[in-house]
């Protein structure tokens, strides 16, 4: 029988075989939030990240693709909402500059220690510069439209 609070699953108050050790039985009587906080405080953060990544990699590629798309939609929604809100207080060029500066810093922090010079080395520098200019221009136009129009209309266009 599995012990559940003061009663086992047969309904009697007699303590029968329990799957929890005796000292853990008292912790089962605490609220779930207290049990989770105790559990989380004893678990290593690196282990949690590694376990999550291993579980994510176990998904089929199609499932992973759908999850990536869902995260992408959430990220773009947050980006657009933040740009819409901040465009009331700051000029659009400053928002575009801050977006790409944050991306540059993140890329340097995440990838530069491992890739070093290979991070910026390219066989087509003019193509990369042209692509960057197009991205910056499209972002400036999009953020500019967000500052003047409602978000629903910008998304519809």
List keywords for this structure.
disordered N terminus, mainly alpha, 7 helices, 157 residues, 2 strands, single chain
Quick structural overview:
This protein has 157 residues and is an all-alpha fold. The protein has helices spanning 22-28, 32-42, 45-57, 61-86, 92-115, 125-148, 151-156, and strands at residues 3-4, 7-8.
Word description of this protein:
The protein is an all-alpha fold and 157 residues long. Helices cover 71% and strands 3% of the residues. The chain has helices spanning 22-28, 32-42, 45-57, 61-86, 92-115, 125-148, 151-156; strands spanning 3-4, 7-8. Strands 1-2 form a two-stranded antiparallel ribbon. Helix 5 (92-115) runs antiparallel to helix 6 (125-148). The chain starts with a strand and ends with a helix.
Largest β-sheet summary: 2 strands, antiparallel
Radius of gyration over all CA atoms, rounded: 26 Å
Shape: extended
Q: State the secondary-structure class.
A: mainly alpha
Helical stretch tally:
7
Largest sheet strand order:
1-2
Number of DSSP-assigned strands: 2
- Provide the β-strand percentage band: under 5%
Rounded mean pLDDT score: 80
Produce the secondary structure layout.
Blueprint: E1 3-4, E2 7-8, H1 22-28, H2 32-42, H3 45-57, H4 61-86, H5 92-115, H6 125-148, H7 151-156
Antiparallel strand pairs: 1-2
């Amino acid at each position: 029988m599995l012990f559940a609070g003061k009663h086992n699953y047969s309904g009697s108050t007699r303590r029968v075989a329990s799957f929890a050790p005796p000292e853990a039985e008292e912790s089962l009587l605490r609220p779930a939030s207290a049990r989770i906080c105790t559990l989380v405080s004893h678990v290593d953060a690196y282990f949690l990240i590694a376990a999550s990544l291993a579980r994510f990699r176990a998904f089929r590629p199609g499932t992973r693709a759908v999850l990536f798309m869902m995260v992408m939609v959430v990220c773009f929604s947050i980006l657009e909402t933040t740009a819409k809100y901040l465009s009331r207080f700051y000029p659009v060029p400053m928002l575009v500059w801050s977006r790409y500066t944050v991306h540059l810093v993140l890329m340097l922090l995440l990838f530069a220690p491992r890739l070093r010079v290979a991070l910026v080395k390219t066989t087509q520098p003019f193509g990369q510069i042209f692509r960057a200019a197009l991205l910056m221009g499209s972002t400036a136009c999009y953020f500019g439209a967000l500052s003047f129009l409602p978000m629903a209309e910008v998304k519809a266009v």
